[in-house]
Amino acid sequence: MSGVWVFKNGVIRLVENPESNQGTRRKVLVHTPTNEVITSYGDLDRMLTSLGWERYYDDPDLLQFHKRSTVHLISLPKNFGRFKSMHMYDIVVKNRNLFEVKDM
Fold first, then answer.
1. In the chain, which end has fewer C-beta atoms inside a 10 angstrom radius, N or C?
2. Which has the closest alpha carbon to 2: 23, 37, 14, 11?
3. What is the number of domains present in the chain?
4. Which top-level group of life is the source organism from (predicted)?
5. What range defines the domain where residue 57 resides?
6. pLDDT tens digits for 2-27?
7. How far is Cα of residue 40 from the mean position of the Cα atoms in its chain?
């Protein structure tokens, strides 16, 4: 994973650098039990709903999912084209052993 770590307003995050990623593979989110690559929010919505996640419709700029039995909230950009590896890893962390991020 390449990029620059940025510390701003008390939060540290990795800013991926597309110029340095030329020639490398892109990351994809994979549903581990079925080995299915998530290619759209429709696929992801179906998977998360089957795992007990509920969709929130409060913010028109985000897709949000909440699981009642936890305090977890998954927030994703409305446009699937802006779905980055940091969003994928958020899903992986909140759904242990069910998703993984792979190089494609």
1. C
2. 14
3. 1
4. Eukaryota
5. 25-103
6. 677 777 777 788 877 645 545 567 89
7. 11
